[in-house]
Write a structure and sequence with these properties.
Number of helices of chain B: 10
Organism (chain A): Rhizobium herbae
Radius of gyration of chain A: 24 Å
Structural class of chain B: mainly alpha
Strand content of chain B: under 5%
Number of domains of chain A: 2
Oligomer: heterodimer
Strand content of chain A: 25-35%
Strand order of the largest sheet of chain A: 6-7-8-3-9-10
Keywords (chain A): ATP-binding, Nucleotide-binding, Transport
CATH superfamily of the largest domain in chain A: P-loop containing nucleotide triphosphate hydrolases
Distance between the termini of chain A: 33 Å
CATH architecture of the largest domain in chain A: 3-Layer(aba) Sandwich
InterPro entries (chain A): AAA+_ATPase, ABC_transporter-like_ATP-bd, ABC_transporter-like_CS, ABC_transporter_ATP-binding, P-loop_NTPase
Distance between the termini of chain B: 25 Å
Order of helices and strands of chain A: EEEHEEHEHHHEHEHEEHEEEHEH
Order of helices and strands of chain B: HHHHHHHHHH
Number of strands of chain A: 14
CATH topology of the largest domain in chain A: Rossmann fold
GO molecular function, one term (chain A): ATP binding
Number of helices of chain A: 10
Largest sheet of chain B: none
Structural class of chain A: alpha/beta
Number of domains of chain B: 1
Family (chain A): Belongs to the ABC transporter superfamily.
Largest sheet of chain A: 6 strands, mixed
Number of strands of chain B: 0
Helix content of chain B: over 70%
Shape of chain A: elongated
């Protein structure tokens, strides 16, 4: 099946000379949730802005549903819903009016039943007659999502949807995203929260310095790049490693009470069996053993060299 | 043509007028009434008729134009500047609407509001002075064309403005002198020859003169010239707008 969004050799140079995107290519499949990770200024928002039509590209092409975003913008933009990063709202409008306005802008005839459903799904219905300035930040964020869903889009862009949102609301948002996925909406989200990508994404893209560093199935990515850590708690502390263990990549922690062994699950041999045998031969008695999988965050830091 | 979008923008903008009724409608009516009381009744009673028209009636077309220009520029510029200022413009730019549709929605609403107030002022004026309109269709033509042209002018100002100061620069500093010196309150024939010549460089003179001709058949310049001037101004603005759309000037960069 053709990808729902296809970005080819996209370049964006701003008037100031700053090159925000350098030859970005990427395909997004229909129905998936793609998380774009990257530090500030990586080019995430510029990429989204070009796909949605807010910023003109300098070079390259973007197709949405097979239509070009520049020459056939009516077709592409009608398919797209965008939730921007900033909490931009018309403060003096009511929730109902602002969401209905968005539907009209996208060329859809008024459909109060759909607007009602969207507002109910986002727990906004009881606030429908409130002015936006009366709402909390989290509620405003929901209004922006409601606006983006007002015209029944096939592709939804969420630019930092949970920035500045408290933990409960963030979990609620994830549920909303999950529900949307069930209806077949393709979701692209950018985020600073790695746990968010880890929790809800099918694929993860890492972007930095205007380039896509990688884009991969989340599970494959974690498997491929995922390092595991074996922690061995000792019955008695040791001050230094015996000679026989020097060939292993071990570090001593907790004042000599634990040994940490890093290994790669993708490797043919993890070395765990021989390590445990060597420990027994060296007369070191074990109290407990545990393993920990490295998180997406660790992978990210390794790739980008900075926290997102 | 995305008619739903044009309708949405238009009615969204018109709803703003309802919310700000005092500021949008009542305030221009009060200020115009003050002009009539001061210039029409108090000062005007001591001024002789101009070309057979009482002074109060003579200034009416000028006052309507003054309000129409200020309101249309104000509404046209604010309508598009406000979403830029709040950031909600993202939605407009990411919607399947062409720039022509955006202009139709915003400029249509600005012109409608301007004309509504213009009509209210005409009604208010008729309470103070005896008015007759010699050429109602010509009057309507000037009225509608001026409203559209200056709403479009306002729209361009709104796109160009980077802050509220720039937004108010032209409506506050440029338009009032042009209107006041464009013969709103006098016939330019009353000026010394030098200032008469200078006045002819003022485009607003042609608007007021043409508009006044439709009421009283008296004019400082040929009404056909007045009509041509509006059309030329409209054409220049359309050209400017086309350039803005093509380059995405201050919108998509």
């Amino acid at each position: 099946m053709a990808p729902i969004v296809s970005v080819s050799n996209l370049v964006k140079t701003y008037a100031s000379g700053f090159q925000a995107l350098k030859d970005v290519s990427l395909d997004i499949e229909e129905g998936e949730i793609l998380a774009l990770l990257g530090p500030n200024g990586a080019g995430k928002t510029t990429l989204i802005s070009i796909i949605c039509g807010i910023v003109n590209p300098t070079g390259g092409t973007v197709l949405v549903g097979g239509h070009d975003v520049v020459t056939d913008f009516r077709a592409t933009r009608a398919m797209i819903g965008l939730v921007p990063q900033e909490l931009t709202t018309d403060q003096f409008e009511t929730v109902w009016n602002t969401v209905s306005f968005s539907r009209g802008l996208h060329g859809k005839k008024p459909n109060p039943a759909h607007i009602e459903k969207v507002l109910k799904d986002l727990s906004l219905y009881d606030k429908k007659d409130n002015m936006l300035r009366e709402l909390s930040g989290g509620m405003k964020r929901r209004v922006l999502i409601a606006k983006a869903l007002s015209h029944e889009p096939r592709v939804l862009f969420l630019d930092e949807p949970t920035a500045g949102v408290d933990v409960n609301l963030r979990k609620d948002m994830w549920q909303v995203v999950e529900k949307l996925r069930e209806t077949g909406v393709t979701i692209i989200l950018t985020t600073h929260y790695i746990e968010e990508a880890e929790e809800i994404a099918d694929r993860v893209g890492v972007i930095n310095g205007g380039k896509i560093l990688l884009i991969e199935d989340k599970k494959d990515l974690m498997k491929k790049l995922g390092r595991k850590e074996l922690r061995v708690d000792l019955q008695e502390p040791i001050s230094s490693l015996p000679e026989t263990l020097s060939s292993y990549d071990l570090t001593i922690e907790d004042d000599g009470n634990s040994l940490i062994y890093d290994y790669n699950t993708a490797g043919e041999r993890t070395g765990i069996t021989t390590l445990l045998t060597a420990l027994a031969e060296a007369g070191i008695r074990l109290k407990d053993i545990s393993t920990r999988q490295s998180s997406l965050e660790d992978i990210f830091v390794e790739l980008v060299g900075a926290r997102p | 043509m995305n008619l739903e979008a044009v309708k949405s923008i238009y009615f969204f903008e018109m709803a703003r007028t309802r919310r700000t009724l005092l500021q949008s409608v009542v305030s221009p009516v009060i200020s115009t009434s003050l002009y009539f009381i001061v210039f029409g009744a108090a000062v005007g009673s001591r001024i002789q008729e101009i070309d057979g028209v009482s002074y109060g009636a003579f200034i009416t077309p000028g006052l309507i134009m003054l309000t129409l220009l200020t309101q249309c520029i104000g509404n046209g510029s604010f309508g598009i500047y406000f979403p830029k200022f709040t950031g909600t413009i993202y939605e407009l730019l990411s919607s399947p609407v062409s720039m022509t549709e955006i202009v139709l929605g915003y400029v249509g609403a600005a012109a409608t509001k301007g004309m509504m107030i213009g009509i209210i002022i005409l009604g208010t004026a008729s309470l103070f002075v005896d008015l007759s309109i010699a050429h109602p269709f010509v009057m309507l033509l000037f009225f509608v064309l001026t409203a559209i042209t200056f709403s479009l002018f306002g729209f361009i100002i709104g796109i160009w403005a980077k802050d509220f100061e720039q937004l108010n620069l032209i409506p506050m500093l440029v338009i009032p002198p042009l209107v006041f010196l464009g013969g709103s309150f006098y016939s330019v024939n009353m000026l010394p020859p030098f200032w008469q010549a200078v006045s002819h460089f003022n485009p607003v003179l042609y608007l007021i003169s043409g508009f006044r001709w439709s009421f009283f058949e008296i004019a400082d310049v040929n009404p056909v010239v007045s009509f041509a001037i509006i059309i030329v101004f409209l054409a220049v603005l359309m050209g400017l707008l086309t350039w803005i759309f093509r380059t995405g000037y201050r919108l998509r960069n």
